[in-house]
Q: What sequence folds into this?
């Protein structure tokens, strides 16, 4: 069993829809990252969370430390949001090693 | 302010050869990590360098080695390449004291 599990693996939405991607982890962590990866490979960091909630534009990320669960929400989705969204955690408190989920492929159709 | 840069962008090698990938961290960052991402999978941690020493290592064989230079840039070396080494190799940098990791665009390695 992976230490970081994401759901769903694939998600197709219509433009304007509200989207939720979930991430569950089974170990103690010091931080959780949400990352976006477009075709071609480059990874962009969207959020780094250790508690609570963060918002940036149409993106919202929440984390529940007790339940070991995080969600990434996209409001008013747009075709340019189509990408792979990856959850990654920093286990423990030392180093910068990240453990990644498998990613969620999001496709937003116009 | 340049972000994390990697070179080359793409590389094709033959089984048994050796390869060196390069990474320059974001300005001001002193810690560099390397990840391998096979097609359709999430990245896997290879190792992390800080103060020119390997500080953490993932579950990769000794064929994978690295180096960090005094200017914080880093190299990833892979010897005796296998077909299974074909992947996107990502470099990420951060400050040792904490903060977000910034990723480079990656080097796509194909082993034939």
A:
């Amino acid at each position: 069993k992976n230490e970081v599990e994401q759901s769903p693996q694939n998600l197709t939405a219509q433009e304007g829809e509200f989207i939720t991607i979930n991430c569950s982890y089974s170990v103690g962590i010091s931080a959780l990252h949400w990352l976006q990866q477009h075709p071609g490979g480059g990874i962009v960091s969207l959020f780094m969370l250790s508690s609570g909630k963060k918002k940036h534009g149409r993106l919202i990320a929440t984390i529940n430390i007790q339940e070991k669960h995080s969600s990434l929400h996209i409001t008013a989705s747009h075709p340019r949001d189509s990408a792979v969204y990856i959850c990654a955690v920093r286990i423990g408190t030392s180093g910068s090693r990240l453990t990644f989920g498998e990613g969620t492929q999001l496709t937003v159709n116009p | 302010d340049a972000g994390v840069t990697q070179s080359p962008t793409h590389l094709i090698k033959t089984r048994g050869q050796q390869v060196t990938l390069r990474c320059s961290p974001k300005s001001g960052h002193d810690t560099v990590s390397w990840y391998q991402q096979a097609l359709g999978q999430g990245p896997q941690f290879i190792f992390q360098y800080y103060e020119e020493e390997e500080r953490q290592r993932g579950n990769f064989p000794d064929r994978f080695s690295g180096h960090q230079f005094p200017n914080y840039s880093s190299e990833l070396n892979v010897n005796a390449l296998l077909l299974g080494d074909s992947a996107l190799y990502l470099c990420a940098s951060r400050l040792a004291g904490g903060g977000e990791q910034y990723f480079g665009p990656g080097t796509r390695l194909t082993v034939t």
Observations:
- Chain A touches chain B through 22 residues (CB under 8 Å).
- The mean pLDDT of chain A is 92.
- Residues 60 and 105 of chain A are 18 Å apart (CA to CA).
